[in-house]
C-alpha cells in the first residue's frame, strides 16, 4: 500500500507541473484585471509548437522557448482585443480556445494527414534530473528525484512569485491596474499596457505548460492532450484566492487527484467515473466556497 501511495504522489508531482504553470500565469493575469479563459487554447498551441521545434532543432530548450513565445504572442493579441477594442474577456477567451483548436486541427490534417495525433521521430524530450543526495531519502526521493527541469523551475517560480507580485514595483503596478483602474490612471500608470503585459506572461506560462505535456511526459501531440487542464488551472487560482502559495498547493492537490484516477484505471476500475474524480472535486470545492461566502454575507447582515 505504501508503494502504491508513493507512486501516486510521485506521478502527482509530475502531473502538477502543467497545471501549476498555467495557474501561475492565469493568477498574474487576474491580478492585472483580466480573467483568462483562453489558457486551454494557449496550452494546446504550446504543446504542438514545442514538439515541432524540438524535433526540427534537436533541442528541448528551443522547443520550450518557442512554445512559450508563441503562446505569449497569442496572449498578447487576446489582451489587445479586450483592452483596445473593449471586447468581452469571457467571449474572447472561449473564442480563442476554439480558434486555436481549429487552427491546430487544420494544420495536422493539411500538413501531416492526421486527424488529431502527431508523433515526430526526432523529438527531443525533456531530460530527467536526479539529485544523488535526494534520491536516497525515503519518500522525498520518490517524490522529487528523476524529475525534468521544468518541474523544478515551476516550483521555483511558484515560490518566487509572491515576492515579485507584492515586493517589486512591477508587481505592485500590475496589482494596481487590476484592483482599481481609475486610481492606476490617476497616478500615471498605463493600465492597458500593464494588462497586455500580464496577458503575455500568462500566455508564456501556458505555452510552457502545454510543452511539458508534449515533450515532457508523452513525446507526442494529440488534440485531447490538454483535457481541460487549462480550466482546472483557472479553478486553482480561484480556490487559492489569488494567493500564489495557496494556488500552488491547490494545483498539487489536482495533480495528485489526476495521478490517482490514472492509477485506479490501471487497477481495472471503469475509466469514465474514475476520470471524473478531478472534475467532481472542482465542483464540490466551488459549491463549498459559494456556500461559505453566502453564509458569511448573511452573518454580516
For this entry, give a set of tags:
301 residues; mainly alpha; two-stranded antiparallel ribbon; 14 helices; 2 strands; 77% helix
Describe the structure.
Helix 1 (2-31) packs across helix 12 and helix 8 (169-179) packs across helix 10. With 301 residues, this protein is mostly helical. The protein is built from 14 helices and two strands; from the N terminus they run ααααβααααααβαααα. The longest helix has 30 residues, at 2-31. 77% of the residues lie in helices and 1% in strands. A two-stranded antiparallel sheet has the order 1-2. It is globular.
Low-confidence stretches: none
| Helical percentage | over 70%
Query: Widest sheet: strand order?
Result: 1-2
Please trace the helix and strand order, writing H or E for each element. HHHHEHHHHHHEHHHH
Beta strands, count:
2
Amino acid at each position: 500500500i505504501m508503494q502504491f501511495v508513493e507512486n501516486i504522489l510521485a506521478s502527482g508531482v509530475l502531473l502538477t507541473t502543467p497545471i501549476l504553470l498555467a495557474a501561475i500565469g492565469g493568477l498574474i493575469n487576474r491580478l492585472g484585471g483580466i480573467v483568462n479563459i483562453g489558457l486551454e487554447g494557449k496550452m494546446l498551441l504550446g504543446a504542438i509548437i514545442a514538439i515541432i521545434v524540438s524535433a526540427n532543432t534537436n533541442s528541448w530548450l528551443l522547443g520550450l522557448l518557442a512554445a512559450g513565445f508563441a503562446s505569449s504572442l497569442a496572449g498578447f493579441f487576446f489582451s489587445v482585443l479586450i483592452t483596445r477594442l473593449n471586447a468581452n474577456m469571457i467571449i474572447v477567451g472561449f473564442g480563442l480556445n476554439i480558434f486555436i483548436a481549429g487552427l491546430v486541427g487544420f494544420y495536422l490534417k493539411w500538413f501531416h494527414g492526421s486527424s488529431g495525433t502527431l508523433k515526430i521521430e526526432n523529438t527531443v524530450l525533456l531530460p530527467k534530473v536526479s539529485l544523488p543526495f535526494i534520491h536516497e531519502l525515503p519518500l522525498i526521493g520518490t517524490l522529487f528525484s528523476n524529475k525534468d527541469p521544468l518541474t523544478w523551475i515551476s516550483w521555483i517560480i511558484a515560490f518566487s512569485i509572491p515576492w515579485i507580485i507584492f515586493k517589486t514595483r512591477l508587481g505592485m503596478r500590475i496589482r494596481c491596474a487590476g484592483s482599481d483602474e481609475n486610481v492606476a490612471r490617476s497616478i500615471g500608470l498605463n493600465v492597458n499596457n500593464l494588462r497586455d503585459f500580464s496577458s503575455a506572461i500568462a500566455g508564456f506560462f501556458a505555452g510552457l505548460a502545454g510543452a511539458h505535456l508534449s515533450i515532457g511526459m508523452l513525446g507526442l501531440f494529440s488534440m485531447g492532450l490538454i483535457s481541460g487542464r487549462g480550466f482546472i488551472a483557472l479553478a486553482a487560482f480561484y480556490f487559492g484566492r489569488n494567493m500564489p502559495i495557496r494556488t500552488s498547493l491547490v494545483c498539487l492537490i489536482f495533480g495528485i487527484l489526476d495521478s490517482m484516477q490514472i492509477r485506479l484505471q490501471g487497477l481495472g476500475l471503469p475509466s469514465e467515473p474514475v476520470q471524473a474524480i478531478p472534475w467532481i472535486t472542482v465542483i464540490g470545492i466551488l459549491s463549498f466556497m459559494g456556500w461559505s461566502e453566502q453564509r458569511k454575507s448573511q452573518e454580516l447582515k
